[in-house]
Amino acid sequence: MNEDQRVAQAQLDLINEVISNTKARLEQNGGTFLFWGILLTVASAAQFVLIQMEYYSISYYPYFAALFGWIYTIRKYAVGRKTKTRKSNILGKAVQSIWIHVGINAALLGFLLAIELGDHLIPVILLVVSAGVLLSGVIIKHRYIFFAGIFCNLAAYLAFFIPYGFQPLLTSIVYFAVMVVPGYLLIKDYRRRHGTK
What we know:
Layout: H1 3-28, H2 30-52, H3 65-83, H4 90-112, H5 114-117, H6 121-140, H7 143-159, H8 167-194
């Protein structure tokens, strides 16, 4: 092996190590995916029930639970940052930045532009979420999460053609598939790799 090949191999090894470390951290934090997945699945299902019961004016109230989710998540990461001596790598920061961006945009769309978007609010939010899921899957090279992002994207376009009253039901199913299941898989992978139950 010549010098160029050794340098190229060392660079590939470094890239693979960075990806592995990022994946391990995300697996360790799979509980965050699971937490948000459950919270949003339940909020969407509750919105569907409220719409079916014709409580239209308060049907968005279940999403206020996301405010408590933000407080919990920020607190969790603030405490985690104080206790960890290792800093996250660039890919870990990228995944975190993506989800901060997705969360802020979903909240702004839902709470500031709901009237303007009308029946298109849920499909647009799903498009934003699909980008976060898909990019997370690409960055950590997790096949299920990547395909979950594609599924979320397709579901978003499908939602444009579903009556508004049934969009929260679709959203609940989507959040379960693209956040709860990946969260569970990440936790399972982490436990398998570290021999814990």
